[in-house]
Amino acid sequence: MRNILMLFAVLSLFSCVNKDGSKKDSDLDIQGTWQLLSATTIENGTSQTTDYSGKLKMIKMFNHTHFAFLKHSLNPKDTSSFDAGGGSFVLDKDDYTEHLEYYKNKDWEGKTFKFKLAIHKDTLIQKGIEKVEKAGVDRMIIEKYIKVK
Fold this sequence. Notes:
This protein is mostly beta strands. Helix content is 9%, strand content 55%. It is built from one helix and nine strands; from the N terminus they run αβββββββββ.
């Protein structure tokens, strides 16, 4: 009986790993802190990319149930570029749904946003639609993060 239990335990471990040794898509590990490298916004057919390796810095943090993000300017005299928010999320394979509970613009609070996530080595890519009618926002975003070690 003990051998059968050990066999099931070993088989369950192997079922979580692909042949190349990586985790299955259903097991995306997003927990921790991620630093934004770039953010592309596509709105009304126009694409704009912001590089976050220079004057701006943003991080996004995940635990089992919640996310938070913080953004600020690296210029010590710029206090207007600060932004922050957070809330709960659900991750089902690569389908990531955020429920924004905290944000400086109250029009965004209480909104739900659906994204697709992909992880390639230490890079997280988040892609989806941000739509907030009260704020006049209807755009696609593509954000690229790197894992903070």
